[in-house]
What we know:
Layout: H1 2-15, H2 19-28, H3 42-56, H4 60-63, E1 70-78, E2 88-99, E3 104-116, E4 122-136, E5 141-148, E6 155-161, E7 167-176, E8 181-194, E9 197-204, E10 212-220
Antiparallel strand pairs: 1-2, 1-10, 2-3, 3-4, 4-5, 5-6, 6-7, 7-8, 8-9, 9-10
Amino acid sequence: MRVGVLLVAAGLSVSSGSFAARAWGQEKQGKDKAMGSGMPDAQQMDEMMKKWQAVASPGEHHKRLQHFVGSWKLSTRMWMSGPGSEPTVSQGTATVKWVLDGRFLLEESSGEFKMPGPDGKEMAVPFKGLGLGGYDNYRNLYVGTWADNLNTHLLTMAGTCDPSGKVFTSYAQMDEPMLDVHGRMVKYVTRIINDNKHVVEIYDLHAGDNYKVLEITYERQ
């Protein structure tokens, strides 16, 4: 990870002066053949940098995420046999904070999941997870990633928020090795109940639009 960070930093320092120019040349290549090199002049470069700064800066959409900052107690219900069955109930905690100068939220969760063991009886499995989420100004979408100690895949999701600013809906593709399924569509709905509570619902769209498999209630500590 440290090597990757150093490489990224080196790449940024080398390319910061030429990135916009190369991007401009690629975008305008077809139109500027008759004009010579197609490289931007000083005014065009200034306009490009202003566009980049606008896209790269946190804005109003990021403010909607402020609710999630803090320390939380988690209660998770999971329906292993589908909606209508008896759910398993697990407990955990999470901390959420702003990182990268207010551009993303970092969530660190831990606890346990109650799952069927090899003998069919319920067993507690230690759980740790990391989430990174924010708002992509260029794509106009809320975006996020998730990784945990129960899988080796990295989930990526994207979605929107309703006009009230209280309901976030995102979609992702998730593999299901136990069923030999790849790219299973999943919907995540996060509802802000009040200042100290929100609920995350996870739906398996492969099984049905309202097939809820997991629900996590966050209560502020």
